[in-house]
Amino acid sequence: MFKGSIVAIVTPFKDGKVDEKAFSELIEWHISEGTNAIVPCGTTGESATLEYEEHYRVIQIAIEVVNKRVPVIAGTGANSTDETIMMTKKAKELGADGALLVAPYYNKPTQEGLYRHYKAVAEAVDLPLVLYNVPGRTAVNISPQTVARLAEIENIVAIKEASANMRQVSDIIRLCGDSITVLSGDDFTTFPIMMLGGKGVISVAANVMPKSVAQLCSLCEKGEIEEARRLHYYLEPLNASMFIETNPIPVKTALALMGKIQEEFRLPLCEMAPENKAKLKETLSSYNLI
Q1: Under CATH, what is the fold of the domain 4-222?
Q2: How far apart (Å, rounded) are the C-alpha atoms in residues 46 and 159?
Q3: How far is the C-alpha of 128 from the C-alpha of 99, rounded, in Å?
Q4: Cβ pair 248, 280 in contact under 8 A
Q5: Would strands 73-75 and 98-102 be described as parallel, antiparallel, or unpaired?
Q6: Do 160 and 129 contact (CB within 8 A), yes or no?
Q7: H runs (alpha helix) in the chain
Q8: Does residue 136 sit in helix, strand or coil?
Q9: 114/23 Cα distance (integer angstroms)
Q10: Residue (of 224, 217, 239, 185) closest to 77 by Cα position
Q11: Residues 209-219: pLDDT tens digits?
């Protein structure tokens, strides 16, 4: 259901509010460049600092602008199961095609707790759900064995795997087979994960070079391995530059330098250090993006 280049799209701000015009224009650009699906309100969308009404409005805009041309997978995860259910129900009501659910962060549930969390959401909301494993942010890892248990639940359809652990990815695919779709959660792992049997990426770099990320996924899917490998290495400096500071600081700065959004964040995120911004500019220039 969900595959290819799926952008974890930024949330543009202007004067402290969501810049609805810039956001709509970004979505149109992504569709014209070949992006396969849109994820509003993920980590890259600064969901942690969006108020509930803003969160729902960003999802609503994405759904309305996309107008069923590609899937919209709304970020609705939280570290409270009841809150996750509430937001996921709202995403379904708004017309989302699926929901991305980050593993509950900070309270560090056990594997059984993770299983019960996702099972409760799946039972409460009849919507395709994408698990999101990102131990570097959540301080908890969804084990392959837990993923295999969750894959037996009909509406848990995919996992965004951002552990960067290829053994873990391999174990998930070995244990689950076709019962769950594995998506890369880090741009630098898109090629190796797709070689293991993954189906695409929920991408940060696609915010900046959507056509190239979509092409990489397409080449992998078609089995054009040498060309895909070449593109993987071509994109690596860009991928690395997206994480020289905490995501989404570099990607929003890049888009601002490209003239697509305002360079605006919400605390505790702030503008880049001057030396890192200089490095980012150098990388963007090397791709003729600025």
Answers
A1: TIM Barrel (3.20.20)
A2: 20
A3: 7
A4: no
A5: parallel
A6: no
A7: 20-33, 52-66, 81-94, 111-124, 135-138, 144-151, 166-176, 190-196, 210-222, 225-241, 249-257, 274-286
A8: helix
A9: 33
A10: 185
A11: 999 999 999 99
48 closest CA partner among 265, 285, 288: 265
Residues 290, 282: Cα–Cα separation, whole Å: 9
Contacts 24+ apart (CB under 8 A), 211-217: 211/33, 211/34, 213/5, 213/7, 213/35, 213/187, 214/4, 214/5, 214/33, 214/34, 214/35, 214/36, 215/34, 216/5, 216/190, 216/191, 217/3, 217/4, 217/5, 217/36, 217/190
- Residue 225 pLDDT: 97
pLDDT, averaged per 10 consecutive residues of the chain (290 residues), comes to: 96 97 98 98 96 98 98 97 98 98 96 98 98 96 98 98 96 96 97 98 98 98 98 98 97 98 97 98 97
Q: What is the DSSP string of 159-172?
A: EEE-S--HHHHHHH
Query: Under a CB-based contact definition with an 8 Å cutoff, are residues 125 and 99 in contact?
Result: yes
Active-site positions read 132, 160
pLDDT tens per residue, range 70-98: 999 999 999 999 999 999 999 999 999 99
C-alpha span between 186 and 44 (Å, rounded): 12
Q: Please tell me the distance from the alpha carbon of residue 239 to that of residue 118, in angstroms, as a whole number.
A: 30
Give me 90's structure tokens: 């709202």
**Under DSSP, is residue 184 helix (H, G, I), strand (E, B) or coil?**
strand
Which position has the token pair 């962060």? 105
